[in-house]
Amino acid sequence: MSVRIRTRMGDGYVTELTPQELRDDLVAGSADAVKRGKVPPLEENEIDWLVDLFTNPSRIMGVEPGHEVILTKDGSVNTLYSAQLSSGVGLPLGREQCFRIFERAFCFDTMEIGHPDYSYKPVKPIVALEATGVEQALLTAVIPVFYGAMPNFGLYAQPDGPFPNPADLLPRGEVEAAREAQMQMAEACKADMLYVSRMMAMVGSDGINFDTTASTGDAEFLAVLETVEELAATTDLAIEVGMAAEFVLGFHGQLEYKGKRLAGMWPHQQVKVVEEAGAHLFGPVVNTNSRKSVPWNVARAVTIVKECSRVATIPIHANVGMGVGGVPMFEVPPADVLTRASAAMVEIGRVDGL
Amino acid sequence: MGTGDPYGMSISHALASGMGGIRTSGDLVARMQLRNKMRLPEAKKYVADKLKVGVEDLGDSTVMRNLRQELDIGVITAVPGARRGIEAKRNIAELLDVEVPCLKRL
Predict the structure, then answer these.
(1) What is the pLDDT of residues A159-185, one digit of tens each?
(2) Are A109 and B103 within 8 A, CB to CB?
(3) Mean pLDDT of all residues in A323-344
(4) Residues 6+ apart with CB under 8 A from A292
(5) What is d(CA B16, CA A57) in angstroms, rounded to the nearest whole number?
(6) Which of A140, A142, A342 minimises the CB distance to B27?
(7) How many Å apart are CA A90 and CA A165, to the nearest integer?
(8) CA neighbor of A146 nearest in space, from A317, A18, A331
(9) What own/partner pairs with CB < 8 Å and gap ≥ 24 does A38-43 have?
């Protein structure tokens, strides 16, 4: 009987591969990264390492002792007290209690306070409440305290916001109007992010996190970069920029930051403009393809992130949450493949954190 | 990191790859990344030198548990009288010669 290796698909469901199919998937995943991201392929010894990782029958895997990395957590402590929208388990706890649980029970290296809505725009009118939560955590916690939220550009377009919706204008061929609307949205988004961030700096937060940056493309990315630049120059906040997807959509198409076109940037290019803006941590994303195997997805993800880590001068904290970084697109990630994606991102992706 | 239920996502990553926070020295290494933009090897060496331990000891809870209590920089278990919260961070700032923003409020 031929050897079958138990692994999973990108949607989390179990599949089985022969040893040759496993190696073929790893090579193909890396090749896809090379083709799309224009990055170097994995070395043969790295493919061998991944073969061993996925062939090992152990239920969970991990990095070698001494290779451990720093953990940051976007989405904050919401995962404990919030609802399914944050993969939350609905515990009847306050945010500050959840923060202490992450510090003392889960042994996280850093943690974040955030609002359940987790976007800068709705935080603005209740920023005093949010800052109070950060203050409470700062008093009682030893680990660094971040405040985190998403730029969430879509909230600035009609019907949720005041500006014409580019997604309505573009199908009508109103390209210039769509571009103008995005620039207005960018200014409003930037103002909200600066307002909230300055309050967090004032109360003594260790850092601020811009999560799912560029979810609506290059104009959103520009708004974050300009916000980072201003905060880096005027506050002592440590600034983390985590991306929404593996490449920047050209929803505007013509925007540049310091002479570099933002649309179409991949992680190894994104990190250079994020560095230039003055950020302290960068979180690259590689999307999971739910129709491919986890080995295919992990090989693809670490190929892209490895190049990002190689060119970076600031710490890289790769996104390895649901549906990114080789992790299945499923809200209850199976620990067998989750821990393999985790170890591979550290040992092959050469990241400084997750 | 990212979304996913706490057991499947947060705890699984912590066990597979995490430094261990105040159980070991993860918070200290994190502070050097946050304040000085140090990459991981540089941050670990900096902290190890300040603590006068080997880099390999930084993720070892048997080494760090007692050392943290000796340095009074916050320990994982609830020890009466041990510095906690902002008290512990004042000692960390002195030990690592690193800025902790909230201490400016004291």
Answers:
(1) 999 999 999 999 999 999 999 999 999
(2) no
(3) 97
(4) A9, A10, A25, A29
(5) 16
(6) A142
(7) 34
(8) A317
(9) A38/A266, A39/A266, A39/A268, A39/A303, A39/A304, A39/A306, A39/A307, A40/A303, A40/A306, A40/A307, A41/A303, A42/A299, A42/A302, A42/A303, A42/A306, A42/A348
> CB-based burial of residue B19 (10 Å sphere; 0-12 exposed, 13-18 middle, 19+ buried)?
buried
- Closest alpha carbon to A282 in A308, A306, A315: A315
- CB within 8 Å of A75: residues ≥ 6 apart: A86, A87, A112, A114, A118, A148, A211, A321, B1, B2, B3
Token pair for A186: 């960018």
Name the helix (H) or strand (E) containing A14.
Answer: strand A14-17
Question: Cα A88–A216–A218 angle (5° rounding)?
Answer: 135
Average pLDDT for residues A324-329, to the nearest whole number?
A: 97
B33, B73 in Cβ contact below 8 A? Answer: no
Q: Encode A267-280: b = buried (16+ Cβ within 10 Å), e = exposed.
A: bbbbbbbbbebbbb
Distance from C-alpha of A214 to C-alpha of A283, rounded to nearest angstrom: 12
Name the DSSP class of B9: I
* Cα–Cα–Cα angle for A83, A86, A92, rounded to 5 degrees: 40
What would you measure as the largest C-alpha separation in chain B, in angstroms?
A: 39
A334: left (phi over 0), alpha (psi -120 to 50) or beta: beta
Please check the confidence at residue B16 and state whether its pLDDT lies above 90. yes
Given the structure tokens 């560029």, which residue do they identify? A214
Tens digits of residue pLDDT in B48-94: 999 999 999 999 999 999 999 999 999 999 999 999 999 999 999 99
Contact present, A217 and A185 (Cβ < 8 Å)? no
Can you list the positions of beta strands (E) in A264-339? Answer: 281-283
- Answer whether B93 touches A (CB < 8 Å): no
Gap from A339 CA to chain B (nearest CA, Å): 6
* Phi-psi domain of A15 (left: phi exceeds 0; alpha: psi -120 through 50; beta: other): beta
The interface residues of chain B toward chain A in range 44-73, judged by CB-CB distance below 8 A, are 55-56, 58-60, 73
Structure tokens at A326: 């080789």
**CB within 8 Å of A213: residues ≥ 6 apart:** A151, A220, A221, A224, A241, A242, A243, A244
Tokens representing B9?
């996502």
Whole-number Å distance between alpha carbons of A228 and A240? 9
8 A C-beta contact, residue B41 and residue A86: no
The amino acid sitting at A45 is: N
